[in-house]
């Protein structure tokens, strides 16, 4: 897998705290960011697949004898 350098701007306080988290985990801030972006992309892909699957299921659903009347019909006098 080819890796690409990415330049981002983050508040100093966040970077300082991220370095502490990375040190506790025995990794780098770069590795933390890469892992979180991986998770975000994977989550988005799973959501897209689930949304397509749900849309397909709804499109193929059969009528189960739902409402056949109109509101105005019920209130006609």
What do these coordinates show?
- There is one protein chain.
- The chain is mostly helical.
- It has a domain of about 25 residues.
- About 65% of the residues lie in helices and about 0% in strands.
- The chain contains three helices and no strands.
- The radius of gyration is 25 Å and the shape is elongated.
- It starts with 11 loop residues before the first helix and ends with a helix.
Beta-strand percent range: under 5%
User: By helix and strand content, what is the structural category?
Assistant: mainly alpha
Q: Indicate the mean pLDDT.
A: 92
- Number of H/I helices: 3
In brief, what are we looking at here?
By secondary structure, the protein is mainly α. The protein has helices at residues 12-25, 29-60, 71-74. The chain has a domain at 36-60.
Write the layout of secondary structure elements.
Layout: H1 12-25, H2 29-60, H3 71-74
List keywords for this structure.
about 80 residues; mainly alpha; 3 helices
């Amino acid at each position: 897998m080819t890796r690409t350098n990415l330049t981002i701007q983050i508040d100093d306080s966040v970077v300082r705290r991220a370095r502490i988290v990375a040190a506790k985990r025995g990794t780098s801030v770069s590795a933390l960011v890469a892992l979180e972006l991986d998770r975000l992309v994977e989550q988005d892909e799973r959501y897209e697949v689930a949304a397509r699957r749900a849309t397909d299921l709804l499109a193929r659903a059969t009528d189960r004898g739902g409402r056949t009347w109109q509101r105005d019909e019920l209130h006609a006098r």
